[in-house]
Structure formats: structure tokens, C-alpha cells
Amino acid sequence: MDGRVEEIRDDLKRLMLEQLESLKVQTFGGLTEEELQQQKERLKRIREVSVDFLVACRSEFVTADAAGGVGVLPLDGPGVGGVGVDIAAELAS
Question: Is 70 in a helix, a strand, or coil?
């Protein structure tokens, strides 16, 4: 298993968990303008890291363990995809 793929996957998971927490705060308590800006910047970074992950997976054979918990899914419509990280285990704790 390539350390680069794991590193990107872990970074993506961390960013998505931070975004999830931010969305919870936004939903139930509201965010300041600064926090909203951080949320937008984080979403941009999630998109960038998603691309990096897809490129890393494509450029080498990735075992099921390396890609575990990560899936490709449509975001905005046909032909536009994204990467999702399974964070169900994190939410259950």
C-alpha cells in the first residue's frame, strides 16, 4: 500500500470531518463571517485533495485497504464526480 495514497486519504478524511462539524454548528448555532469563510476555503481544499486522491489511485494499483472507506460519487450531475470518505464509524462514537 502506497504511503502517498494513505496520506491523501487521511487528509481528506480529516478535512471532511472538520467540514461536518462546521455544518453542524452552522445548522444548530450559526457561524460567524470568519467561520463561513473558513468553511468555504475548506470545501475548496476538499475538492483539491479529492482530485489528488483520484490521480494517486489512477496512477497506481490501489488495494481495497488503501481505498477503504472512500468512494467516488456524483456531485453536481452527469460527468461531474467527487470523492466521499466513509465517516460513519466516526459519527457512531
Answer: strand
